[in-house]
Amino acid sequence: MPVLHRTVVQPVVTEKSSAAYAARKEYAFMADPHATKREIKAAIEGLFNVTVVGIRTLQQRSKRRTLGRREGRRPRWKKAYVRLKPGDAIQVFEG
Q: What is the CATH number of the domain that holds 84?
């Protein structure tokens, strides 16, 4: 298994992820595109000392990016929606 900080790269804080947290107590994270759900679960539990109940993942496709005449692509990445045991919380999202 890769290093925990490489499996879960950073939290995703957007309007949509904030609405998911308010409605269903789900946290959104950017994860390594090659990480499995089990690796993501182990990384979240190891980093934040919480119990993960469920995980939903999706692959964000790479996007085309142009800058003048130059053209390139943004990298693809994996988004993981993590649901925790009732009573657990991650302080990054709390405030």
A: 3.30.70.330
Burial (CB count within 10 angstroms: exposed 0-12, middle 13-18, buried 19+), residue 9: middle
Domain span including residue 56: 4-61+75-88
pLDDT tens, 10-53? 899 888 888 888 888 899 999 999 999 999 999 999 999 999 99
Under 8 Å between Cβ of 20 and 79: no
In what side-by-side order are the strands of the sheet with 52-60?
8-11, 26-31, 77-84, 52-60
Rounded-to-integer distance, Cα 20 and Cα 41, Å: 18
Count of domains in the chain? 1
Q: Model confidence over 56-74: pLDDT tens digits?
A: 999 999 999 998 899 999 9
* pTM, to two decimals: 0.82
